[in-house]
Design goal:
255 residues, alpha/beta, 2 domains, eight-stranded parallel barrel, 11 strands, 19% strand
Length: 255
């Protein structure tokens, strides 16, 4: 009996070790929370790079005058981003004094020599006009191509069509679907590279990651901030963990 218990423990450690080895930590809106920085700021991106996170996740929106900006919410200091010109929005600075980051500046500042940290780019859905989604997607892809940084990008979105447009423009682009409203077979048929679901879906359905893996899909989860949840996802071999505490999670995985 004692030997059996030792075998079980050894297998558990081995399997957990394998899962940890595959696990990639993504800083949610940059490494902001642990370092008292504004989310989606250049500073939070640079901190994620400093921590050598696999990726730094951020959100893209389009202003009225066609400037792509990095901001999660559709409203910035009370103004709808889609209905305002960039110069007017940028009269209000981030809490650390930074400008409202443009996507171009974000890419340039994040594409520093020696950085392996990927851009995990979420193109947000427009609020006022859904037709703007395709335009914003095309403009993001044009910028990525012009800067020659396609290999540093992973695209995520809650809108299925946005990822379809990305794949149509660049079939080699890595895209992960955020919304758990499609069958795995549908995601596979669309030639997406994987799923990136809220952690609750994996906790409720332990067969989800297995099905995705059997279909050769990448497996990610957001926004994971508790160690117990992280451990559950490790056992399910979830590869991409997006978190507000990337530094703490990286230290946990080292142990």
């Amino acid at each position: 009996m004692h030997k059996l218990i030792l075998v079980i423990i050894s297998l558990y450690i081995m399997n957990t070790g394998i899962a940890q080895h595959k696990t990639k930590i993504i800083a949610h809106r940059g490494a902001w929370q642990e370092f008292n920085l504004p989310e989606n700021s250049i500073a939070s991106l640079q901190k994620a790079i400093e921590l050598n996170c696999y990726g730094s996740e951020f959100d893209v929106r389009r202003t009225k005058d066609g400037v792509l900006v990095v901001c999660h919410d559709p409203v910035y200091y009370g103004d709808s981003i889609e209905l305002m010109n960039y110069a007017d929005l940028n009269k209000h600075k981030l809490s650390n004094g930074e400008d409202l980051p443009t996507l171009l500046d974000y890419f340039k500042k994040g594409n520093i020599a020696g950085s392996n940290t990927k851009f995990i780019c979420e193109i947000k859905q427009a609020v006022t006009d859904k037709e703007l989604d395709k335009l914003a997607t095309e403009e993001v892809m044009q910028m990525v191509k012009k800067l020659g940084i396609a290999k540093k990008l992973v695209f995520i979105s809650f809108r299925f069509e946005i990822l379809e447009w990305i794949k149509a423009i660049d079939p080699q682009a890595i895209v992960l679907y955020l919304e758990a409203d499609k069958e795995i077979a549908t995601i596979k048929k669309a030639k997406f590279d994987g799923i990136n679901y809220h952690y609750s879906h994996y906790l409720k359905n332990e067969g989800l990651s297995k099905e995705a893996k059997e279909n050769k899909l990448l497996i990610g989860s957001w926004t994971v901030n508790e160690g117990t949840v992280l451990n559950s996802l490790l056992l399910q071999e979830v590869e991409f963990i997006t978190t507000n505490t990337p530094n703490a999670f990286k230290l946990m995985l080292k142990k």
